# Entry
Amino acid sequence: MTDPNDIARIVVNEAFRIRYKLGPGMLESVYESILARQLTRAGVPVERQVPVTFEFEGLLYENAFKVDLWVARTVIVEIKVARTLTPVHYQQALTYVKLTKCKLGLLINFGAPSMREGIKRIANGR
# Structure
């Protein structure tokens, strides 16, 4: 499975199930752990807290940041637990998607009033 849209669909479905069953009151690390395990159970490869190295103006920045979940090395998932997301949350996720050269990212806010409001799709137009 390598199509980013198919992978994103599975991630979103699992996020909805988790939020429905657990509600909005957990820590980000808990949602991250559960989502990773559910994706693995669904047969989707996922890595947690993946350090990312990138180059900027000829200099290499090793382990500059970590992505919450890198699903099938195709979709970046950034998890938040906040009442509302700010533009900074979106920009952070967009930067992660660009620097990893992924085509697609998901910003998932388990703290939103509803999951429909809590999922933002981030496309990298490169």
